[in-house]
Write the structure tokens for this entry.
Amino acid sequence: MKKILLSCLIGTALLTSPLSLLAKPGVTLFATGGTIAGKASSAKEATEYKAGELSVGQLVAAVPALNEVATISGVQIANVPSGDIDQQILLALTKKITDTLQRADQSGVVVTHGTDTLEETAFFLDLTVKSPKPVVVVGAMRPATAISADGPMNLLQAVTLASSDSARDRGVLVAFNDRIASGFYVSKTNANVTDTFKATEPGYLGSFVKGQPWFYYSPAQPSDKPFFDVSQKTSLPKVTILYAHQEQDPALLEAAVNAGAQGIVIAAAGNAAVPVRANAAIEKIMAKGVPVVLSTRTGNGYTSMRTDGSRHGIGSGIYNPQKARILLMLALAETRDMDKIRGYFDH
Ligand code: ASP
């Protein structure tokens, strides 16, 4: 009995020793560029600026409070506007994040990113990183030099989130404008304003209260989220997006294949609608083994195909065109079986 008591006391002493009280969580910050690292010629300027100017070291140095929350390590993956993020950057990012999260001294990681294609990277990482630890993607709508720049607070909240046990087992998260969203569902919904990131149908997962993450629900993952192991991949198949509209030219489908596309996503009107005369082109391309996925340009909703065969292609399900493109790239890297590819979307 004495022995048990003694070991309990030693255990408590160890847990509350000054050393363990001082130990801060480790967080690695992967910087890729974007407006959060952008500079303008004046503090009033919020639209004319150059993205991807500040280094990861400068981003961290600008927010001293980060060091109160975590022990930060910085890795510069790229320094580009997010329109220039490509599959080589995505593959490097997912491999480095996976390695980092395997380290016992790391609680989570943060990726700083341009907002324009942030949702694509967040979605890609959600499908390719397997870890209970948080991966938080963050950016800013105003450059670092602007009055009321949103980057520093977004970054502090992202690091706080990546350090937090409550953020575990939730997949990739996006911290933006005081809110926490699922990287799987979130989308940029406005070209200019700071509350641009929304997941209209599923909603937010939480927000920040008194500087700490506050989740509305206990940990959950999106239904039917697939996982793709890309650890051995050095490239991914090319997938192109075409936009549907009145008088859409079906010849562009063939042109995309001639330009090397191994898969095509159409941002169709409504629920997978394209002009009837586009069906023949879709059928021809699908017969060549090139999947054509029909998403919706509406921004929301589930895209299904008609069972009467009056439409061709693969319905994208819940995925918007840019997320459907990422999923199709990953699916094609794994299989060319049309039914299996259909299964990733249509469930
Ligand atoms: N052009 C920027 C980018 O996506 C926009 C931003 O970061 O808000 O890199």
Summary: The chain has two domains: 24-215, 239-345. Residues 57 and 74 are 7 Å apart (CA to CA).
